[in-house]
Design brief:
Elements lengths: L2 H16 L13 H9 L12 H12 L1 H11 L7 H7 L11 H12 L7 E2 L7 E2 L3 E8 L5 E7 L3 H22 L3 H4 L1 H15 L2 H14 L6 E2 L12 E5 L3 E3 L3 H6 L4 H19 L2 E2 L7 E4 L8 E3 L5 E2 L3 H15 L3 H11 L8 H12 L12 H13 L7 H20 L5 H17 L1 H18 L3 H56 L5 H21 L1
Parallel strand pairs: 5-10
Antiparallel strand pairs: 1-3, 2-3, 3-4, 4-6, 7-9, 8-11, 9-10
Helix pairs in contact: 1-3, 3-4, 3-5, 4-5, 4-9, 7-9, 12-17, 12-18, 13-14, 13-18, 14-15, 15-16, 16-17, 18-19, 20-21
């Protein structure tokens, strides 16, 4: 470790001990040196003994800065790995980061443009509109058309900070399986690797721009979701230029009610937007926390969401979408056998899984859920229970499903905050059933024929030539197979002859040796036996070559 890394490590340890996070160290023989070392550091007492462990962990991460805040946010989505009291506190983490100097932001923007800011933008506000752990946002006006925009710029020198902290996090992740009893199941190194990839992806604003353009195209003309326009001509890896939006934050329920927003319809549309992204488009915004969602002031009786910050997106392939939809329907129909079979068929659990045992495990975990009314059943927790049960049967972590679970928890939480009586199942079930019918019914066959027709029409004139080439290749292949079979037969015959000659040679050599034992003087018989044995061995050896 370098001196800088050691200094940073000391700061991290000091913050952790000040918040009493050494309580997370299990009382095991292997951790005894760590616990003794902690006792010796009497000048670093726990200064927050009155707070719960989860809250202390959240406060410590906030104090350590952007990388650790993001890490805590990511951990809060893995409710399958952490106790509820910790996951709930981590979910409260916000990007409480002080803004950096607006003059530096202006300099970074001009570096990205390669020209003075006045050449492209007017009315640049040097005071940031918002500041987060990775970037901050400034307002301006686009010179070419006078439209109000926001300019998102990556924090200066953030990459070295991220790399330095990630090195330390990786080192600590390697120790977790040795220190925690359940450490291996937590798979800390994989969690950290996923986090690092997510973090580095967020540093590339061109990726975010492309995601936003795709999402905007998917919902073009929709009254459910509006995605701001991206001005890609001005974007770079460190700068994003986007239409400025005006809306009510989704978390401000009081303002929404005062503006007369139809809360029931708004909550239902949140669910519809999510399932439309997942099942229709196979491209979903995977960071839909309240800070990234607004509601348009226009048409309060027909409310429309506004989505921003598309740095993290997820997707599902056709098979995953179908299995997931069928899983949800089978679960709410209490067809646990079907749920178990779907997990095996999809490859999410090993093919040799005992379906009866798996069905019983799912029934044991999930049946108590149905003691509640459907309107009170958490869709996100249903999915979480399914995945947790499946992991006991060696289900591998599916990154796309983890993102989906995280997003569904966000959507469901927002929906029930807006309208507590929201029956998420009543809203989602018709959508899922219609989607499955569309995928496996006659419309799906007709659609597939339409999609493939141009390809077939293009290949139709080539069919005679392809048929002739296939016959010729079959003929050549048959000749090759015949030749190979003949060669194998010859090789087998040679091996047989070789073994026979080795046996004859060994017999002759043993006979000659036995004759010499009884008749010490060489004679024609003993000499002939030894010579014949040697010759037989030589011939056998040649046959093996």
């Amino acid at each position: 470790m370098s001196f800088g890394e050691l200094r940073r490590l000391y700061l991290i340890i000091r913050v952790f001990l000040t918040y009493g996070l050494d309580e997370l160290i299990p009382k095991m023989r292997i951790t005894l040196p760590l616990r003794l070392w902690r006792k010796c550091l009497f000048w670093l007492p726990n200064r927050h003994k009155n707070l719960p462990l989860g809250e202390r962990l959240r406060l410590a991460l906030e104090q350590l800065g952007p990388v650790w805040i993001k890490f805590g946010q990511m951990m809060s989505t893995r409710r399958d790995l952490f106790p509820r009291q910790i996951a709930d506190q981590l979910a409260m983490l916000q990007d409480r980061v002080a803004p950096f100097d607006g003059a530096k932001a202006l300099k970074l923007i001009e570096q990205s443009l390669g020209a003075p800011i006045s050449s492209q933008f007017d009315d640049f506000d040097i005071t940031p509109l918002a500041s987060a752990s990775i970037a901050q946002v400034h307002t301006a006006t686009l010179k070419e058309n006078g439209k109000a925009i926001v300019i998102k710029v990556i924090r200066p020198d953030i990459l070295p900070v991220i790399k330095a902290d990630m090195k330390l996090i990786k080192r600590m992740a390697r120790w977790v399986p040795r220190l925690l009893p359940d450490g291996r199941r937590l798979r800390p190194q994989e969690v950290v690797a996923d986090y690092e990839k997510t973090l580095l992806d967020e540093l590339n604003l061109l990726r975010e721009a492309a995601n936003a353009i795709q999402l905007r195209r998917n919902f073009d003309g929709s009254n459910m979701l509006y995605v701001p326009e991206i001005y890609s001509d001005y974007c770079s890896e460190t700068m994003l230029v986007m239409e400025r939006i005006y809306g009510i934050p989704i978390s401000d329920v009081v303002a929404l009610e005062q503006h007369g927003i139809n809360m029931k319809l708004l909550a239902e549309r949140g669910v519809q937007v999510f399932f439309t992204q997942v099942f229709r488009d196979s491209f979903f915004h995977a960071d839909m926390h309240p800070g990234n969602i607004f509601v348009s002031y226009e048409h309060p009786e027909d409310p429309q969401y506004i989505g921003i910050d598309c740095g993290i997106v997820g997707s599902l392939n056709k098979e995953d979408k179908r299995y997931l939809a069928e899983n949800f329907i089978a679960f709410f129909n209490r067809d646990y056998r079907k749920v178990a079979e779907l997990h095996v068929d999809s490859g999410w659990v090993p093919p040799d899984t005992n379906v009866e045992d798996f069905e019983f495990a799912i029934r044991t975990v999930c049946e108590p859920i149905f003691e509640k009314p459907l309107a009170e059943i958490s869709f996100g927790h249903v999915l979480m229970n399914l995945f947790n049960t499946a992991r006991r049967f060696n289900m591998e972590v599916q990154p796309q499903l983890v993102l989906l679970q995280k997003t569904l928890l966000y959507v469901e939480g927002v929906g029930r905050q807006l309208y507590p009586q929201l029956d998420l199942w009543k809203t989602a079930k018709p959508f899922l059933e219609d989607w499955i019918k569309d995928q496996i019914g006659i419309p799906a066959i007709v659609r597939a024929l339409k999609e493939k027709a141009p390809f077939w029409a293009e290949k139709l004139p080539e069919l005679p030539e392809l048929f002739y080439d296939s016959l010729r290749q079959h003929k050549h292949l048959q000749h090759s197979v015949d030749r190979l079979v003949s060669e194998l037969k010859d090789e087998k015959a040679k091996q047989h002859q070789s073994r026979y000659l080795f046996g004859v040679g060994a017999t002759l050599l043993l006979s000659g040796t036995a004759i010499l034992l009884f008749r010490p003087d060489w004679d024609l018989l003993s000499a002939g036996s030894v010579a014949g044995g040697i010759v037989a061995w030589l011939l056998g050896w040649r046959r093996t070559k």
